[in-house]
Each structure stands twice: as C-alpha cells, then as structure tokens.
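Protein 1 of 2
SEQ + STRUCT:
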Amino acid sequence: MDAIVMAGGFGQRLGMGEKPCVELLGKPLIAYVIDTLRASENIDRVFVAVSPVTPRTEIMIQERYKGEVRVIRTFGGNYVGDMVHAVETAETVGPVMIIMSDLPLINPELIDSVIKKYREEGKPALSVYVPINVCKGAGIRPDTVFNKDGKLIVPSGINILDSSQIRNEQEDFNLILDNPKLAINVNTVKDLQHCKDLLQGQE
C-alpha cells in the first residue's frame, strides 16, 4: 500500500512558518510521519503532497530523503481536490493511505494495525477516529467532532481509500481507537510542547 502525506497547509495557528518544517527535538514534524511510514511493514511508497504555501517543505524533503520520498505539487486551497490530484499523480493502485503531516507520536505498529483492520473489514475506505474523552484526557481541544451512534468521536487524520474510486464517495468503516498518540496533532505551540514532553518521556 502506498501512503501520501498531506503537507500543503501553512499552519497559521502555530505561527512558526511552514508547519511540516517546524522542528520538534531537532527533527521536522513531517519527518516523524515519513519515518514511521517507511518503517511500516505494509507501506510501499511514500509521497508528500505540498502546495504553493509550503515550498520550503518540498526542498527539505528532497534534501533529507534524496529522492526516496517523492514530492507531488498540488494547487492548494482545497484539501479534497489536492488529495485527489496527489493520488492520481502518484498513480497508486488499490488502497492508499492518506495521512496528515502533524502526527509526530504515531509509530509503525499503529500504522500496521490500521492496515490490518482495513483488510479485515473489506470496505473500500477506512477512517481512524479517537473518542473525545481521549482528546480531553490528553489536554486537546479538537476542531472537528462527529456523533457516531451516540458517541462523540474526533478524526485522527489517518484514512485509507480505494485509489481507483478516488473521485467517488466510498463506503467507509469508522475505526475508533482509544489511543492518545492519535489525539495529538500539532496545531499550536502548546501542542508542540506537549509532544516534546511526551517524546522526551519515552527516552
């Protein structure tokens, strides 16, 4: 399965320039996601979708990964449109993982477990969510909340889609995981510090 990291947003709330390039313990945020994907047993190729507002991200990826991670330029401004363009440009076949660039706490085991669940469910698409109480426990105030059978859930920024049907709406399995590592995506300086504290605690 291929993976596309969406890195076209500037990250205005963080206020530190291009968000994918913001350093966390000396390493760009996006590099945590890319390195996790490359270490996953079930991910083949890794692509990064950039936009006109993330030119430094493109340069950094090319310098850091020396062509082993391909950059795809999107038009920016429309997340879904950029994602469709990236999938079609990558010429992926079968399922493709779409993931945000600001999830520094995820690990290869988590990625592989999500893919395993996708294969077991057999639906064209899968979206990963965390219960809202996990976000609250992690001190995170989510931007987007959905009601699923009376439970409040928050999208994690990890999805799997059938690339052959990328322009169509796809039947979607909601995978709800009580995993705090999925609850923390970096939108503010406070989020960045929180990730720093957690990563240093793992050492």
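Protein 2 of 2
SEQ + STRUCT:
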Amino acid sequence: MEEGTLESLGYCDSTVEDDYDVRQWDTREDCEVRQILDRVADKWSLLVIALLDCQTLRFTQLRREIDGVSQRMLSVTLRQLERDGLVSRTVHPVVPPRVDYALTPLGRTLHQTIKALVTWTEEHQQEIATARAAYDARREMMES
C-alpha cells in the first residue's frame, strides 16, 4: 500500500446506538446508508418532504413553492423519492392529466427528523451567523 493512503473503512453497518461509528458512512458507491443519506439530505428532497407534510400537492404547486428548482430537477427528485418509498404519486384519469404527490407513512417518519433539524437551525441561526462573521473577519485580517 502506498504511504499516506488508508485501508478501506470496511462494510456499511447499521446505526445501532451501541455500535454507532461515523465511519460506517463509507464513501464507496455501493454503500446503502451513504446512498440513502445522499438522497434524503439533498436540498430539493428536504424541501419536497417538508412541503408535503399533511398535504397532497400537484407538480406545479410544488414547483411554485420551491424557489430555484428547475422542472427537470423537481421531476428527478420526485422520481427518486417515489422509488425510495417516501413519496406516493397518484395519476388521475382526467383531461388534462392530474398528478398528485403525497408523503407515504415512511416519508412522514422522515419528516419528523427534518422538522427537528429545522427547529435546531432556527434556534441556533444567530449563533451560526455570529460564528460566520467572526470567521470571515479573521480570514480577512489574515489575507490583508
């Protein structure tokens, strides 16, 4: 093995409290935990899941509510969330076609986690803003 390189972190395991090891989020492409985290932690996925809490929305409603998302990116995000079992898609046989999106029971459990993260962010946003300003000031002084 080349000097300065590390051996593989091993296999991805469950996140059982007693066995918790951050290294289980292996960067290998075949790691299921990493793939799921990448999907649900994506900014568009988080917004879709948050918006679908306790309501069903059409594609156009979601697109209107999510500032900056392209039609293609929203389509991809919804398809991935549906594949993962977090969002359901209902096609109504009317003209023009109507498609509704809603959280599945599994998606609702994830929403609780997202809600906790948003609450934490709201509670600590001033501390983070202060830390950012201090960091930027230190960095500016070092560069001048």
